[in-house]
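Bench log. Compound arrived from synthesis this morning; before running ITC I wanted a structural hypothesis for how adenosine-5'-triphosphate sits in the protein. Inputs:
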Amino acid sequence: MSLISVRDLSVTLGHSRILHDINLTLDPGEIVTLVGPNGSGKSTLVRAVIGAVQSTRGQIIRRPGLRIGYVPQKLHIDPTLPLTVMRFLNLPKRVSTVRAEQALAQAGVEAVARRQMADLSGGQLQRVLLARALLDEPELLILDEATQGLDQPGSAAFYQQIETVRSELGCGVLMVSHELHVVMAASDRVICLNGHVCCEGAPEHVASAPAYRALFGTGTQGALALYRHQHDHAHDDECEHDHAHEAAE
Ligand SMILES: Nc1ncnc2c1ncn2[C@@H]1O[C@H](COP(=O)(O)OP(=O)(O)OP(=O)(O)O)[C@@H](O)[C@H]1O
């Protein structure tokens, strides 16, 4: 059974229709990335998946008992507040030291357990947030712009860590990102969103789809090669239609 299955989802916020006719499934072990221009509804879709936003039509079916780990964009911490990484991982509920250390190791930052949160670099902080999301051994890991503020090598290293986590835990991963070339290459499947699903499939397929190119141009192909890895592309969805005109909407 899929981890999540989104069927004909529409979301209206205030008087604006933000998402319409969204269909999406995510299977165990899959890394799916949502890309799309600012305001295209990526965060709204993720928030609907975690149950923080109500749908106006359609449904979201979660596998019964599904454990979801969520990595936010950023965490604002008062720099004057003394808070070690270990204490942070014990908020809001206590975890064993062994489990916290395991999660830090899975996130690639085992050495920072006793450090102050305020002293961490941007990349270390994002990995600590990842560790926190891993504490409950999620079956689905959701990351919403989790590499914002990191430079490109930092982002690439973070996404490689996500791939490691996926292969160690076997969890599915749903990510939102603006860093098209880096994130797309780390994904099994990419969904290009602009209020609805414009096109989807393997990164190479989406990068060359007319709808994607209309939204983002053609500059990502070379960079994709940087982090290319082998996938079975046999089941890629074809881009059903050309929505190139929508870029002008
Ligand atoms: N509570 C709300 N009420 C009304 N409109 C909202 C609300 N929340 C979000 N929106 C609008 O929904 C649209 C989609 O927002 P969303 O944050 O999902 O897009 P996004 O693709 O994640 O954007 P970005 O890439 O800029 O983060 C935007 O136009 C936003 O202004």
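What the model suggests: The mean pLDDT is 84. Residues 5 and 25 are 4 Å apart (CA to CA).
ITC booked for Thursday regardless.
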